[in-house]
Every structure is written in structure tokens, then in C-alpha cells.
Design goal:
Elements: H1 8-22, H2 28-43, H3 50-63
Helix pairs in contact: 1-2, 2-3
């Protein structure tokens, strides 16, 4: 979020992911699924730098390990 080489809309979306994950009113599975959805949208942006896309994929992969039930 503090990388100036990343477009502003991507940084805003990353901040949204952070807020989603910190929302304790939802279950862990719901938070992870919501964050993965946002990250998927971000990773499809053609303006995203390659190193950022790789980082987003890594975070999404880690979130996919959160148990659903």
C-alpha cells in the first residue's frame, strides 16, 4: 500500500482487503473469501506491476488455506 510504483486504485483496493480481513464481525472464512475476491479483481488489472501481481497471488494462495467450515 505504500509502494508509489503501484497505481492508486490498486493501493486503495489493497487497503480494502486489509479492512476486510480485520473485520472481526465476520467469520474467518467469510473474510478470507471476500479478500480473495477483491485480490482476484486487483490481479486482473492490466496496469498492475508484475512484482505486485506476484505478491497478490501469494497472499491469495495463503488465504485459500483458511478452512471453510
Amino acid at each position: 500500500m505504500s509502494d508509489d510504483t503501484v497505481p492508486r486504485n490498486i493501493r486503495r483496493s489493497a487497503d480494502s482487503v486489509k479492512a476486510t480481513l480485520l473485520n472481526v464481525q465476520e467469520s474467518e472464512a467469510i473474510r478470507a473469501a471476500s479478500a480473495i475476491s477483491i485480490l482476484d479483481e486487483i490481479s486482473n488489472d492490466p496496469n498492475i506491476p508484475l512484482h505486485t501481481r506476484t505478491l497478490i497471488w501469494n497472499v491469495a494462495s495463503q488465504l485459500e488455506t483458511v478452512p471453510v467450515g
